[in-house]
Each structure stands twice: as C-alpha cells, then as structure tokens.
Input
Amino acid sequence: MYNIALFGPPGAGKGTQSRKLIEKYNLAYISTGDILREEIAAGSELGMQAKSVIEKGGLVSDEIIVQIIEKKIKTNTEVNGFLFDGFPRTIVQAYILEGLLLKLNTSLNCMVRLEVPQDILMERMLERAKKEKRIDDTTEVIENRLKEYKNKTIPVADFYKEKGIKYSVNGVGSVDDIFERITNVVEQSLTKTWLNVVLFGPPGSGKGTQGKLLADKYDLVYISTGSLIRREIEKGTKMGNAAKKYVEKGDIVPDEFAIKLIEKQIQTHPDANGFFFKGFPRTIVQAYILDGLLRKLNSSVSCVFNLDVPTLESIKRLSARSKTEKNRYYDMDTDVIIRRLENFQTKTKPVLDYYAKQKNIYNIDGIGTEEEVLKRLTKKLELAFKNAR
Output
C-alpha cells in the first residue's frame, strides 16, 4: 500500500493535482472536509456527531475525524493506497495518523508540499473569488488563512522532514509541469520503500535454502537470527556463550540477543532495498519487536510467507540432514528435534495468526523439489511486492 500526504497553502492547486495523482496511482482520496460532508449526508452516527458540533459553531474533534478516516480506509479495499489532502494539519494530527496507519499495518510513504510565493497565491485566490463570487474572500481574509496555514503546517512539515519523507515541489507553472514534478518525487520515494519479507516454516521446512535464493533473486539483505547466533557461538563471544545453552536444548534464545544482531545487520546495510527475515519473529513478543525496529526506520513488514510442511515430513528431513555435511549439532538429538517442533507449534503458530489478521500472509505448500517450491514462492512474492508498492 502506498500513501501520500499532499500539502499546500490555499490556492496552491492541491485539488487539481490530487485528482491527477488519484488516477495515476489508483489511490483513494481523503479530505477531512469531504469525508465529513459525506458522513453528514449519509446520516451516519459519526456524521450526526459532527453535524451537532458544527451547528453549534464548534470544530469537529480529532477523535471524530480519525474514526471517519479509519472508516474510509477500511471501506476502500480495491485501491493501491490513499492520498491525504490537507491532513494532518497539526503535530497532534500527525501523531494520530502515525498511530492509525500503524494499526492498519501501513504507513505514510511521502509528504509532498507545494511551494507557491504568497503574492501568486493572493492573485490566484482573489481571481477565484471574483469568478466564483465569493464575497467573503477579501484580501484580509486570505492573508489570515495563509498565516494560519503557515503557523500550523510548518511544524508538521518539520515532523516529516525528520522522518526523511518530506519533499518540496515548486507549485508555479502549468498543471502538467507541476504534476510531473510531483510524480518525480513520488517515484523517488517509491525507490526508497523497503520491501521486508518474513519467511516462516517448521524446522526442516527448507526456510534457509529458499530464503537465501529469494533474497539473492530480489537483492534483499538476508537475515537469519539462527545463523547469526551460530556464528556468535562459533566465535566464542560473550553472546554466543550465553546463547549456546538455549540452542543446545532447542529453545528460543532471549529476545535481546536477536534485537542486537538484527539492528547490527540493518545498520551495516543503509542502502538496502529491503530485508529478508528467516525464522524471526518466532513469538508474538518478537513480532512486536520487529514491528518496532522497522517502524523506527519508517518501514514495516511488507509480506509474510509460511512454508506448510507436515510434522512427520519435517522429522524425516531433519533426520536425513543429520547424516550429511550440512547437519547441525541439534539435528542429532531426537528430543531436541521434538522440542524445536513443539516450540514452533506453541509459540510460532500464534505469530502466523497475528500476521493473518493483518492480511499480508501467504501459505505456501512446502512439499516438492527445491525448484517447485521456489516457483510457488516467487509467484506469490511478485504479487506481494506489487501490492506493497
């Protein structure tokens, strides 16, 4: 899903450019004024609450506005994303939008601000007032509106500048020229969108093999917490020695180990296209941790895959691997294998339910040759990437 916030002072031409952006990128249009009027006209409960406030001369609360926006997002399921026109208008609303989009497992990808000199804005709005016979749009009123916009939206622009997603666009010129400038920065922000994949599957499902192949194919940084921890154990580091006792029993290592290793991998690949997480998160708590790590970097999980392999097949595969050069020391102990499979069933299956509720999980048949399984994964991954961008 791709989400844009379009900002600009009164008279900047947001309405015209919004219509063109909606058509080009198949976005749903969200203007708080428009959706408030829609709810009031429909006579909905939220609409009636808003109407009551407006009739008394008050301002509709952020609480009502965010509920109406959430409703609009949830009822538009056939679009590629959303275009927010003039929202958020305050820092408070910026934080509200962050939380709302997080709840809906998405985020704002870019904030485009149309820059137009005040004298040109005044000229445009006075001309529009004359054409549309807006007798209240005097020079004084327009100046006040522009002053209010400047005072409230500059802090919002700074908020998104700190997140690295604010883009300023020259709003002077022909409609087509301005639109070309906007689409240029939108395309630029698209290339900065990380694609983050999580691959699940019980022990012996082939996650490692498939994960490396897919990460290479799509130029993603492969992160296997299991491999990273084994490397720490082999080096005899403090973390490795502490983790060894958990690994030998087939248990999940403490979360702080995984966090440090993942953060290190992310920090050492600042120019990555995205990350491929194999075998992480393994618990609900780790799912929250991964969300937090990626949200900190203005990103999120793009899609989740689960290799579906029956328990008996997993045991057969692990037993066969124990007799090869690729064996792990925990493949040799039947009790440890059973323990690892039990951990997957009791601790990791709830994580699959967590992602299923967010509707970004794909279950893949893990039975077949390496090429057959890879083909199934690739087909679904192409679809997932298309939806993510």
